[in-house]
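Format notes (please read before filing issues)

Several people have asked whether sequences and structure tokens are stored in separate files. They are not. Every record keeps both together, in the order shown below: the sequence lines, then the token lines. Line labels are part of the format and must not be stripped during preprocessing.
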Amino acid sequence: MNLRQIEIFHAVYLNGSVSAAARALGISQPSVTKTLRHAEDKLGFPLFDRRHRRLIPTEDAKAMFGEVADIQARVAALKQTGRNIRRGHGGTLRVSALPSLGLGLLPAAVAQYLADHPTTSFDLDTVHHGDLAGALFDQSTDVVIAFEPPAGFPLATRWLGEGELGLLRRGGDTLATGHRIALAELAGEQIVSVVQSGPIGDLIAREMARLDIGFDESVSSRTFYIAAALVRAGVRSALIDNFTAEAMAAPGLSFTPIKPAMSFDVFAIWLESRPPTSQMENFLNIVAALVNQS
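Then the structure lines:
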């Protein structure tokens, strides 16, 4: 079925007759009848039973309607996006981010973008590193902001800047300029483990192995957000990224960067076959600026 046939099938299904569907679509009744007949011929089975000027959906039609309704909704959204762009509006930007970037960085970027483009819509979500590729391939999002693109997929990236790791703990100065702490100084301390949190956890594990040190890691977290929340609740200290630290800043907490710096890259990631729109590129410019301010 082509889109025109889908549109007419959808209209007849909802309205129950050719005449009502024709009025809803603003076309002639013969056009509806002819297109519906062609659709049935192409499918090889009837979609409606004709009863007293009413068209009753067959069981096959009922089985198809969910998919047809979804296609119609997507087409309607596409048309609306086209109208918005034609009028100078921003359309909808669908962006996902790792939880650590979705707490502070992403909301700040959205707020800044909307200040200049108030008619733009956003569809936002968080995604874990292991689910990043899946979110792009099932098209639940258009761009993911993350620390490292997964290997082995047809993905394209844009480098947005760097972040760094530090120690979040209770007490001490919030962040004295130039003050850093060596990872070796933390050997044996009680620290919330984040070594299973993805690429950044791998970075920490490699550095610990290189220095041949270990921590008391009886409490572990797979996300930096939970690790930071534990510290806020008075549970130990944690090695986390600067973006989470800024988003979770609170009286009584301090964040001290590691020396030498343990830095990591921040990327925007998308499918090679679905490059960003100009509106998305403008939004990513804001994200990049904020990353480099952190």
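For reference, the curators noted about this record: Residues 59-86 form the longest helix (28 residues). The mean pLDDT is 87.
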